[in-house]
Amino acid sequence: MAEIERVLAPASLDEAAEALAAGEATLLAGGTDLMPASHAGKVRFAPMLINLRRIAELSGIAVEDGELRIGTLVTIAELLGDEAVRERCPILAEAADHFASPQIRNAATIGGNLCNASPAGDMLVPLLAAGARVELASKPDGTLVRRVLPLEEFLVGPGRTRRRPDELLATVRVPAAAPDAIWRFFKSGTRPALDISAVSIGLLARKAGNALHEVRIALGAVAPTVVRARAAEATLEGRVLNPETMEAAACAARDEVHPISDVRASAWYRKELIHNMLRRMLSDVAET
Ligand SMILES: Cc1cc2nc3c(=O)[nH]c(=O)nc-3n(C[C@H](O)[C@H](O)[C@H](O)COP(=O)(O)OP(=O)(O)OC[C@H]3O[C@@H](n4cnc5c(N)ncnc54)[C@H](O)[C@@H]3O)c2cc1C
To answer: Counting atoms of ligand 1 from 1, which one is nearest the CA of 43?
Structure first.
């Protein structure tokens, strides 16, 4: 592990971006990924460590222009307890409810989950289903600038994102769900609590009668990043939910993913889980 030479705790986004522009830094939020990885010798710290926790601009949840604007430092516990999140993006609150333990939820941030970019990250699935975008801040020429990327573009692979070394994740922007939206989030792990997903599914759609429209399905832990199940979405779009369409969608989702086998599940098992979980999820939607 490299020696940390400087530790900074900036009080503003501007100050943090300026420090990042000056040289390579490791960013610390809740530390629930960074610290265990460091103890396991899996992290190479940069000479400068920037603790983000004092930056008020990176906290809080607001509603602007019909979007939820979630500060990168918002914890999973805050997401779970927030009225605006429950109303405008209930699938995110549902996923927060399946996240680790209360102790971890109190420290773990939404930004850390996104920047860690694990394909099993629990916040990534609902955010991809909801069409979230991320806002990155940097200070390349002495002025604070922000760029916004769709989450799908931001995530590149396990632990890899399009964040440049001089940027930090500032805000997550989430479009509010339509009033007639239906949503579901399922996560399956090897034990009932405190587990990382073997697979997870997020479903968001509008329901008119018994037909689904604007269907978005996101899958976790079946590819190098979270992915949309576009073939399954197309199978369902505009169609009435009946045993045939539900089975066709579940088969399409199973057939379009190419997961790996690892300690949590074999590739075969993951594909079967996707089929069975999506089928169950759709039956549940059809009945309500
Ligand atoms: C016991 C345990 C159980 C867990 N269970 C789950 C679970 O059920 N589901 C799940 O998804 N995860 C789980 N995790 C993983 C972890 O808690 C989450 O990924 C968490 O959201 C990480 O957030 P953090 O604030 O702790 O990030 P940190 O550890 O502080 O940072 C993680 C990474 O993101 C970078 N980073 C953080 N903030 C920013 C920013 N604003 N801009 C740029 N880069 C940034 C850091 O530099 C680091 O590379 C678990 C971890 C533990 C230890």
So the answer is: 49
Please indicate, yes or no, if residue 1 is contained in any of the structural domains: no
Asked whether the whole model's pTM tops 0.90, one would answer yes
**Ligand 1 neighbours by CB, cut-off 6 Å:** 26-34, 36, 52, 72, 99-100, 104, 107-109, 111-113, 115-116, 121-122, 163, 168-169, 194, 196
Task: Give the bridge partners for 160, in sequence order.
Answer: 157
- Asked whether the predicted pLDDT for residue 260 surpasses 80, the reply is yes
b/e 246-276 (16+ beta carbons within 10 angstroms → b): bebbbbbbbebbebeeeebbeeeebbebbbe
Q: Does residue 193 have a pLDDT over 80?
A: no
Number of structural domains found in the chain = 3
**168 Cα nearest atom in ligand 1:** 42
Domain limit, last residue, from 175, 204, 231: 175
- Band of pLDDT at residue 269, cut at 50, 70 and 90: very high
Residue 166 lies in a domain: yes
